[in-house]
């Protein structure tokens, strides 16, 4: 086993990304409604921020072709994907404007709600923060849904699962 030590910078971008990939994360799909229709983006940069008030965050890449749709949205839903939603998460990663493969319904604020996810956080925008090549989006959670099941996990460029212990 060869250990790599380096100072992150433009010439070490790939190595930095590989090191970050050592940390396994859950897979989420964030959805919103736009004037052109529903939009989705697959995200693994999701985290809780506060219990009181209920706040969560996710990070949006400035180079994303969905940046305009999500950087300005006021309402969105964050879906924690189940292991069996692997294909759906991949399809939304490739094309966030095609919902033909998804079972969904809009809520009263127009947020597309995907079915079969493990958890869903319906949010309204609380804050946006500039952070390098990403925008940190903080949402105030208005409604939560969750169910038992196996979560979809992403680590080192691969998807996998994690079974509930219950």
Task: Describe this structure as you would to a colleague.
The chain is mostly beta strands and about 170 residues long. The chain has one domain (about 10-20, about 25-160): Electron Transport, Fmn-binding Protein, Chain A (Pnp Oxidase, Chain A). About 15% of the residues lie in helices and about 45% in strands. It has three helices and twelve strands; from the N terminus they run αβββββαβαββββββ. The chain is globular and about 50 Å long. The N and C termini lie far apart (about 35 Å).
Task: Describe the SSE topology.
Blueprint: H1 13-20, E1 25-26, E2 28-34, E3 37-43, E4 46-50, E5 55-61, H2 67-71, E6 75-80, H3 86-94, E7 104-106, E8 112-114, E9 119-131, E10 134-146, E11 151-155, E12 158-162
Antiparallel strand pairs: 1-11, 2-3, 2-6, 4-5, 5-10, 6-9, 7-8, 9-10, 11-12
Any descriptors?
Pnp Oxidase, Chain A, 7-stranded antiparallel beta sheet, 3 helices, mainly beta
Count the domains: 1
Query: Looking at CATH, which topology would you report?
Result: Pnp Oxidase, Chain A
- The CATH superfamily name is Electron Transport, Fmn-binding Protein, Chain A
CATH architectural label: Roll
């Amino acid at each position: 086993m060869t250990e790599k030590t380096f100072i992150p910078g433009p010439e070490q971008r790939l190595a930095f990304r590989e090191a970050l990939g050592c940390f396994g994360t859950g897979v989420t799909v964030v959805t919103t409604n736009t004037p052109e229709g529903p939009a989705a983006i697959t995200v693994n940069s999701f985290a809780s921020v506060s219990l009181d008030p209920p706040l969560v965050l996710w990070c949006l890449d400035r180079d994303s072709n969905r940046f305009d749709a999500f950087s300005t949205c006021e309402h969105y839903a964050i879906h924690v994907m189940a292991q069996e939603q692997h294909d759906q998460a991949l399809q939304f990663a490739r094309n966030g404007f095609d919902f033909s493969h998804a079972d969904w319904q809009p809520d009263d604020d127009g947020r597309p709600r995907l079915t079969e996810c493990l958890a869903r956080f319906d949010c309204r925008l609380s804050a946006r923060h500039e952070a390098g090549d990403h925008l940190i989006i903080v949402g105030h959670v208005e409604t939560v849904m969750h169910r038992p099941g196996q979560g979809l996990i992403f680590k080192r460029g691969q998807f996998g699962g994690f079974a509930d212990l219950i």
